[in-house]
Design a protein that fits this description.
468 residues; Beta Polymerase, domain 2; Hydrophobic Seed Protein; Hypothetical protein af1432; 12 strands; 56% helix; 10% strand
């Protein structure tokens, strides 16, 4: 590889040593594509990296101040190069400070032959056995975020975590509290981005990691349900995530008319560099957060959770702030939680009216599609004695009908304004204020019902509304 020769020549010029380390070598053995290359260098780092970036016409910046990691991006070839200064007096010293044995391979660029890879921790053997093994007991204390990374590596590589490492993860789980919200957020999003993230969220829970990040789940675990449910609130939430992921995986089969549009919608980046699908999964996991605080028994002896969605919205906001989510990401998740019950309620009425459809998408806005899918996943995870196949069938029909409205009946979802606020103020000599918005909202509702079709009729409706 020409780039490796260039790097070695630049190092030689400075009487330095440079090694290719970690994930790229691991993935080379696994025959997986990896466009991220990590290097360890002796000597002065910044000048070296700047010169390399100039030679390949790449972009250079400091990535991590703590470890003095410098990054060069080669846009032309789609490659990323990360450089850190060697920790310790030798490459072996550096490697023993790393996380897992599968990431402790190194290649001296003076003699870049894979057969001569430096492997002091038998990482190649663990790669071949598909095992994740911690390098030392200090690894998690040195950087507690590695606790979460163990699960992400396990998921990405389809490896297993060996017993001693699992035991150590459980013992050291409390250290996660020392990690910044931003770093935890990125790892959590990385897990949620996986197609079957529910499996690995469950593993995070079993390894006592998730409760360190989201202690609110303990109350969910202790809250039983009845009627439409057969599980406690936490197990139901995991089930809802599983069903939501299955819906997303089977969109073509479930909603053949709209699956392409839904897929495109789910890939849209919303906030924190995350697509809609990742935030939907987070909302699904959090959708019943408010149930423990709203649990009540009616005089008839039935269990109720009235207002749990409103309560859950506030709790989700607090968690979002802890994880340093952006305001937009938090608002997106909150909206999906707040309205997740609405489609289910609509499936219980004989007729789905244009006004109900308009109100749903008015309130949910761009998150309407995600909220529909969350509601259906929630329904599929509710298998208590009161839940019937007919209810599930009807719920799906309502979701499908409302998706059709969203994509094909814009006149219902977002009706064209017959008059605007300025025209109303001028016509009826009104001052600016909330009343104008209320009139426009009422006009839209009656418009989607087909009772008002022209500007003249719109003004007549507003006149009657003002007189009443």
């Amino acid at each position: 590889m020409k780039t490796l020769k260039l790097l070695n020549s630049l190092a030689k010029k400075r009487k330095a040593k440079i090694y290719l380390v970690g994930g790229y070598l691991r993935d080379l053995i696994l025959e997986r594509e990896n466009k991220d290359l990590d290097f360890v260098l002796t000597g002065r780092l910044t000048d070296f990296v700047k010169e390399f970036a100039k030679k390949i016409n790449g972009t250079f910046f400091l990535l991590n101040d703590r470890y003095q990691t410098n990054r060069v991006i080669d846009k032309k070839n789609g490659l990323t190069y990360d450089f850190t200064r060697m920790r310790g007096r030798s490459i072996e010293d550096d490697l023993k400070k790393r996380d897992f044995t599968i990431n402790t391979l190194a290649l001296d660029l003076e003699k870049p032959v894979l057969l001569k890879v430096i492997d002091p921790h038998k990482g190649r053997g663990d790669i071949q056995k598909r095992v994740i093994r911690v390098v030392s007991e200090r690894a998690f204390s040195d950087d507690p975020l590695r606790l979460l990374r163990s699960i992400r590596f396990r998921a990405l590589l389809n490896f297993r975590i060996e017993k001693k490492t699992k035991k150590l993860i459980i013992q050291k789980a409390f250290l996660l509290k020392k990690v910044s919200g931003e770093r935890i957020r990125e790892e959590l999003f990385g897990i949620l981005a996986l197609e079957e993230s529910h499996k690995f969220i469950r593993e995070l829970d079993e390894l006592k990691l998730l409760v360190q990040i989201i202690p609110e789940i303990e109350a969910l675990r202790k809250t039983d349900q009845e009627g439409f449910h057969h599980l406690d609130v936490w197990e139901h939430s995991l089930g809802a995530l599983k069903h939501t992921e299955e819906i997303l995986k089977n969109l073509k089969k479930l909603f053949p008319k709209f699956y392409k549009k839904i897929n495109k919608h789910m890939k849209e980046e919303v906030a924190d560099k995350q697509p809609r699908i990742t935030l939907l999964k987070l909302a699904t996991l959090f959708h019943d957060l408010g149930k423990p605080q709203t649990q009540a028994i009616t005089p008839e002896g039935r269990m109720r959770f009235i207002g749990h969605e409103e309560k859950g919205v506030g709790m989700a906001e607090e968690i979002g702030k802890r994880l340093r989510l952006s305001k937009k990401a938090i608002e997106t998740v909150k909206k999906e939680i707040l309205y997740h019950m609405r489609p289910g309620n609509l499936s219980g009425v004989p007729e789905l009216t244009n006004r109900a459809i308009f109100r749903f998408f008015r309130d949910c806005k761009e998150e309407g599609v995600e909220t529909l899918i969350l509601s259906y996943g929630d329904r599929l995870a509710s298998c208590g004695p009161l839940a019937t196949p007919g209810m599930i069938k009807r719920h799906r029909e309502v979701v499908e009908e409302m998706l059709g409205d969203y994509y094909e009946r814009k006149s219902i979802v977002k009706p064209k304004k017959l008059v605007n606020g300025s025209e109303i103020m001028k016509r009826f000599n009104l001052s600016p204020g909330p009343k104008i918005g209320e009139l426009l909202e009422a006009l839209s509702e009656i418009q989607v019902e087909g009772k008002v079709k022209t500007k003249k009729e719109a003004f007549e409706f507003i006149k009657r509304a003002l007189e009443s």
